[in-house]
Write a structure and sequence with these properties.
13% strand, Hypothetical protein af1432, 3 domains, binds fe (ii) ion, Rossmann fold, 20 helices, Beta-Lactamase, alpha/beta
Length: 501
């Protein structure tokens, strides 16, 4: 700071002294403003930026001490030097106590005054520099904390992606963290429907649920659909730089403020979009935030890809097991195609009672594998034409638990395990292996029990002929509330399955 940039206000009721001081200070290069009274000084301080005040103590009207008090109330950091006659030295000491930087006694040598002014100015500069450094340090700390928060958040996502195979949990964590990092209030993940080539909302936070249910973004169409195909982020800045105008649906998604859309892709295959919208007012998305969200969308793509690979692997395992079951059933003409037919009856019945597509998908797999445990039962028991001995019956009745023992270590389709385990339970609690009753029996297991029994009764056995559909349904009706759930069984009779050969 040069003296030329500094302005000093000199206050004294003695015009001669004012002139002398002005000349001396201006000669040193300071800018000088003068006031003949305390009141005038306060008016100048309200209107002008001043770096230092030199004031006489004894003045008519507002005294130097009163002026000092008002200045310190308004601006603690503005240095004030008081001038006083020898007789009021005590007052000068009191002024120091009140916050004056220093005092000089009249008559004074001009050199001494300039020295005191120089010291005060240097100290003020140091204080300002310290203040600036502290502010910078505060800003740096804040940025550092933000960075640590972001690194921590990314570490969390990486942990989740590597530890958890549940796609829902991973993607919901990514949404939560994208909001934490940007301060935005809306985030959504849209996944590409391979058939319709439309992005459909899968997970979201902060958005209207009706809007999310209806929203579709067609790949390759509109600003967003075409933009993400190029695997580049889209933000308000990108729209402005390229004179792009969003369509109505797109505006509904990102709103009128700042937003960021990151493509979720893996090896140049796009799976979905990460959308972050409704940033705090006036905030523009930063390069650092784009980098972080880019990492998040990569993590999302890894999670989705892993999920698909895992599903593929699961399906391969399940297909292998289904082939095993078919081969086992094919050994005996009475049981050939049993699990396949049970699957058909169960699926058609599930559609009749309007189960969800997810439940039907579990049901189909469960039917295909419900008797997988029989692969460890000796063939002579499975195909024995006469009545089983107690020991043989015990081995036969072990097949649901043997099925669970086969499936659990594979860690696949955990949802089918209760069906495999409990498809021989009875409504009256006299079934096996857990002797569950009524509401204790898993719903899908009750459904498989009905389809299983219907197929068993309508299939030929060595000891009896195959029943007709009506005979089998009459048998089921006779056992409602005994072997079968009365409500579900009644619906099954109403469904009236036709025998599949
Ligand atoms: Fe069975």
């Amino acid at each position: 700071m040069n003296p030329q940039e500094l302005k000093i206000l000199v206050v004294d009721d003695d015009p001669g002294l004012l002139e002398t001081l002005t000349d001396a200070l201006e000669l040193e290069g300071y800018g000088v403003t003068t006031a003949r009274a305390g009141e005038e000084a306060l008016q100048i301080l309200d209107e002008e930026e001043v770096d230092l005040v030199i004031t006489d103590i004894k003045m008519p009207g507002l005294s130097g001490m009163e002026l000092l008090k008002v200045i310190k109330e308004k601006n603690q950091s503005l240095p004030v030097i008081v001038m006083t006659g020898f007789a009021s030295l005590e007052t000068a000491i009191e002024a120091i106590k009140q916050g004056a930087y220093d005092y000089i006694t009249k008559p004074f040598e001009i050199e001494k005054l300039l020295h005191t002014v120089s010291k005060a100015v240097t100290q003020k500069k140091l204080e300002e520099k310290n203040k600036q450094l502290l502010e910078d340090l505060g800003d740096l700390n804040k940025k550092l904390e933000e960075k640590i928060g972001q690194i921590f958040a990314l570490g969390e996502v990486s942990n989740i992606v590597t530890r958890i195979q549940d796609l829902d949990t991973i993607l919901q964590a990514i949404i939560y963290i994208s909001l934490e990092i940007t301060g935005a209030s809306k985030s959504a993940i849209l996944l590409l429907d391979g058939m319709s080539k439309e992005f459909v909302v899968e997970y979201y936070k902060g958005f209207d649920s009706k809007l999310m249910a209806a929203l579709r973004i067609k790949l390759g169409r509109g600003v967003i659909g075409a933009g993400v195909q190029k695997m580049k982020p889209i933000s308000r800045k990108v729209l402005e730089e390229n004179n792009l105008v969003l369509g109505k649906d797109e505006v509904e998604l990102v709103g009128e403020g700042e937003f960021l859309i990151m493509p979720i892709s893996y090896l140049n295959n796009i799976f979905g979009l990460l959308v972050v919208a409704d940033f705090p007012e006036g905030k523009r998305v930063s390069d650092a935030e784009i980098n972080i969200l880019n990492i998040l969308s990569r993590q999302a793509s890894i999670a989705i890809n892993n999920h698909y690979l895992y599903q593929k692997l699961q399906n391969k395992y399940l297909t292998t097991l289904e082939v095993l079951v078919s081969a086992l059933e094919a050994k005996c003409k009475n049981t050939k195609g049993h699990s396949y037919r049970v699957g058909i009856y169960a699926r058609k019945f599930a559609e009749f009672i309007k189960l969800s597509s997810d439940e039907i998908s579990i049901l189909e797999k469960a039917c295909a594998l419900h008797d997988i445990g029989k692969i460890v039962i000796p063939d002579y028991i499975l195909s024995k034409p006469s009545k089983l001995s107690d020991g043989e019956m015990e081995q036969m009745r072990a097949h649901p638990l043997k099925g669970v023992e086969i499936l659990v270590p594979l860690g696949i389709m955990k949802e089918i395990i209760p069906v495999v385990r409990n498809h021989h339970e009875r409504f009256d609690g006299k079934g096996y292996p857990d002797c569950l009753k009524n509401g204790e029996i898993p719903f899908l297991a009750k459904l498989v029990t009905l389809a299983d029994a219907f197929d068993a009764m309508t299939s030929l056995r060595s000891y009896r002929k195959a029943l007709t559909s009506q005979e089998a349904l009459a048998e089921i009706e006779a056992n409602l509330g005994v072997q079968f759930d009365p409500h579900l069984g009644a619906q099954f009779i109403k469904f009236n399955p036709q025998i599949v050969l």
